[in-house]
UniProtKB/TrEMBL annotation:
It comes from Savagea serpentis. One of its GO terms (cellular component) is cytosol. It comes from the Bacteria. This is HAD family phosphatase. One of its GO terms (molecular function) is magnesium ion binding. Pfam families: Hydrolase_3. The lineage of its organism: Bacteria, Bacillati, Bacillota, Bacilli, Bacillales.
Length: 270
């Protein structure tokens, strides 16, 4: 079975790397014959520092589905068109917005020097902050500040792009239209019902909708509608996640049908 894990707020917390005990659980899951996939809003560049090096050849979905890395190499990249970038840039200029724009590897940052996003931005100094005009392509945009964030959001929503509003962080997350974690799983030829998903935020909704089973870590109002169950954020959250992984590792996949009714009953009674 495929197991797909979001990172921040799901299996790593407060910007810290995934703990060794969680890594050991994921490693055992892989050794038991399952496939572990990481899927994050972070670009691949910013996923690597929070995932131990021994996992860097695992399949990774970055930029909410804009990037896919397999065996340590970016195999798929989906970027905005030049017209979309021009339209977005005009809106950002109109409202004096600051932003983080990610290419496949390098980035452009215009935000405040003390913005919280900097805690997670290229902490290992793997990339460069370059001029926007120097990018060959842009795969993801975060709007960080603006004269009126609601007006920016309304204007961006009129464009042919995918938008998530992260309320807790007060940032606007923009990806190319039709790009999300589920579309990336499709690119990997993983079919609906053939994976188990762990997540915590709105950008996990597409992934939860198409999972055979889904576990929400913490609580998110929108995501909760699509979660099979949830694990509360507590001092024991990592132990609870590991316990759930151990239970789920007993689930077997049956051909193209994914998880069958016997397995579902096992989960619900487990």
């Amino acid at each position: 079975m495929n197991f797909v894990f979001d990172l921040d707020g799901t299996i790593c917390f407060k910007g810290q790397p995934i703990s060794e005990k969680l890594l050991n659980s994921l490693e055992k899951l892989q050794m038991d014959g399952h496939d572990v996939i990481f899927a994050s809003a972070r670009p691949i560049r910013d996923m690597l520092p929070v995932i131990d090096a021994r996992f860097h050849e695992y399949t990774m979905i970055g930029g909410n589905g804009s990037l896919i890395s397999v065996n340590g190499t970016i195999r798929y990249s989906h970027s905005f068109t030049d017209t979309q970038i021009d339209s977005i840039h005009k809106i950002l200029d109109e409202y004096n917005a600051t932003y983080l724009m990610d290419g496949e590897w390098n980035y452009t940052y215009t935000g405040p020097v003390d913005h919280a996003i900097l805690d997670n931005l290229d902490p290992s100094n793997l990339a460069k902050n370059i001029k926007l005009s120097d990018h060959q392509s842009i795969i993801k945009i975060l709007v960080l500040t603006a004269d009126d964030m609601n007006q920016v959001l309304d204007a961006i929503l009129k464009l042919d792009v995918t938008v998530h509003k992260h309320g807790n962080e007060n940032v606007i997350d923009i990806s190319p239209q039709g790009i999300n974690k589920w579309s990336a799983l499709n690119k990997l030829e993983i079919e609906k019902g053939n994976y188990i998903a762990f997540g915590n935020d709105a950008n996990d909704i597409s992934m939860f909708k198409n999972a055979a089973y889904s576990i929400m870590v913490g609580h998110h109002k929108e995501l909760s509608q699509y979660a099979s169950e949830s694990i509360p954020l507590s001092e024991d959250v990592e132990d609870d996640i590991i316990e759930k992984i151990n239970v789920l590792s007993e689930i077997k996949q049956h051909g193209d049908a994914g998880i069958d009714s016997f397995n579902i009953a096992f989960l619900n009674n487990g």
